[in-house]
Write a structure and sequence with these properties.
399 residues, alpha/beta, globular, binds 3-phosphoglyceric acid, binds magnesium ion
Length: 399
């Protein structure tokens, strides 16, 4: 892939698609990792006198409407602080109308950030007319939105398509992420162990099926475990179960049983009568969960099993917390797994962590610097773990 540092940007308009979809609460940014990780690309353009137009999405707004809670305004401000120079933010205007903004005031070495592209219906639908408004303004297209590379939104696919003939390059974050995935997972040393958790099994079916023949063990945790235990006929109380995925869970369990991969489900569960930090009645159940209780973390016996398996691994991929990792009584499983992955890495394993909640947990439990790579991608890292081809990447110029 050709990268941004390999093209001459002086005086040119560079249209940069970044993934600045960061967690924001009441206007304040909770974790700016994605912004910080995009800085090398941004600086590479600005330091060489490029005129930079940055585009991103934020959350999943209703198309055609402005939603202040999903505005990129706090991101423009934070970016300006990090760069030490103001980032223009022309805002959205009427979101039911095509995007309009002027490049007249944008000098070389300066950046502007467009408002959340998903306020416009054409972004998610991948509309070529929407793309046609932006593509002619730019001389160079750059994709540094690693976290969105699995999406076919207009800014990821239709815009670079409309810019055929002009340079279309990867940003430095996309380059780093793809290199890390290749070096850790390209020909993984065995035992290769995947740790998958989080709320939804639906997001991870393709990944699990792809990983079964490649891994020696898959450790399942988080709420998604209950769709599997329910599929085995175990009592799950009022745990979250995706009934429409029981069939998929059964198919996965059969595929794993017929393979050399051991698919592990939790053997005990930390449960509560309420989905709340401290108000419910907390109890640990093995095998069957009592009526009225829901599983909110893997139990102590499961923690022991999982950490022992991780300790022997040579390659580890982790996506999704083992429980409600934000709340202390239910964060122990995630913390134990995080610690085990850090220790295995220090003992020579290669480890890759993906997903916003998982990356936050890695930071919270202070192991982010003790693993091989913490990805900025959630769904994108799952797509790569599922062996998917990424159209947004395939479109970019070869070096
Ligand atoms: C993410 O946070 O996973 C990326 O920014 C992509 O967002 P999306 O899942 O809403 O497309
Ligand atoms: Mg996502």
């Amino acid at each position: 892939m050709k990268t941004i540092d390999q093209v001459d940007v002086a005086g040119k308009v560079v249209l940069l698609r970044a993934d600045l979809n960061v967690p924001v609460e009441n206007g304040s940014i909770k974790d700016d990792k994605r912004i910080v990780e995009t800085l090398p690309t941004i600086k590479s353009v600005l330091d060489r006198g490029g005129r930079l137009v940055i585009m991103s999405h934020m959350g999943r707004p209703e198309a055609g409407k402005f939603d202040a809670s999903l505005s990129l305004a706090p991101v423009a401000k934070r970016l300006g602080e990090l760069l030490g120079s103001e980032v223009a933010f022309p805002s959205a205007g009427d979101c039911s109308q095509p995007i309009t903004f002027s490049l007249d005031a944008l000098e070389g070495g300066r950046a502007m950030l467009l408002e959340n592209l998903r306020f416009h219906a054409g972004e998610r639908s991948g509309d070529s007319q929407f793309a046609g408004k932006l593509a002619p303004l730019a001389d160079i297209y750059c994709n540094d939105a690693f976290g969105a590379t699995h999406r076919e939104d207009a800014s990821m696919v239709a815009i670079p398509e409309a810019m055929a003939g002009k340079p279309r390059v990867a940003g430095l974050l996309v380059k780093k992420e793809l290199e890390q995935f290749e070096s850790i997972l390209g020909s993984p040393a065995q035992p290769f162990v995947a740790v998958l958790g989080g709320a939804k099994v639906a997001d991870k079916i393709a990944t699990i099926e792809y990983l079964i023949p490649k891994t020696s063990a898959i450790l399942i945790g988080g709420a998604m475990a209950y769709t599997f235990t329910a599929a085995l006929g175990k009592k799950v109380g009022k745990s979250r179960v995706e009934n429409d995925r029981i069939k998929d869970a059964k198919r996965i369990l059969e595929a794993a049983a017929a393979s050399a991969c051991d698919l592990h489900l939790p053997v005990d569960h930390v449960c509560s009568t309420e989905f709340a930090k401290s108000s419910g009645d907390i109890e640990v159940f093995a095998e069957h969960i009592k009526d009225g209780y829901m599983g909110l973390d893997i139990g102590p016996e499961t923690q022991t099993q999982y950490t022992q398996i991780i300790a022997k691994a040579k390659t580890i991929a982790w996506n999704g917390p083992m429980g409600v990792s934000e709340w202390l009584p239910f964060s122990v499983g995630t913390q134990q797994v995080a610690q085990a992955i850090a220790e295995a890495t220090e003992a020579g394993a290669k480890s890759l962590i993906g997903g916003g909640d998982t990356a936050s947990a890695a930071k919270k439990f202070e192991i982010a610097d003790r693993v091989t790579h913490v990805s900025t991608g959630g769904g994108a890292s799952l797509a790569l773990l599922a062996g998917e081809r990424l159209r947004s990447i395939e479109l970019l110029d070869q070096a």
